[in-house]
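Just wondering, does anyone understand what follows?

——
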Amino acid sequence: MRNLVIALALLAFSSSALMAHEGHDHDAPTTIKAPKGGVVKSLDASRVEVVAKGKSIKIYLYDRDMKPATAGEFSVVAQAELPRSKKVEEIKLEPNDAFFEGAYDAKGVHRYKLKLEVTHSKTGETDKLTFNVEPRK
């Protein structure tokens, strides 16, 4: 009987402690709004947004505060991997002032992996990212 009382007391105290913390997640990642309507991923010192429409791919680069960076500050290498065949194809990207642009024909698949290798020209730091792209028309 004594063990039952102790178990119930422990259960009551632990559940009230859990409920007191409910709704407060200070360590949760913040949501980043994609300025161009794409998907944003973070690097150590910057962020990358990918926007894919049909065959067109645009890659925008930002600093940590989501202020646009110029394409000249980075070099980007892109590859597409088709889901079933795992075939990897290079995507040629052209730098513009504010973004990199390329084209890729997904050959009728509804999703593919876009693998990016982003190098910051000032620091020489290189990061690799993978995006799951579902081309929009």
Q: What stands out?
A: Residues 15-28 have pLDDT under 50 and may be disordered. Residues 2-21 form the longest helix (20 residues). DSSP finds one helix and nine strands in the chain. Strands lie at 39-42, 46-53, 56-63, 74-81, 88-91, 93-95, 99-103, 112-120, 126-133.
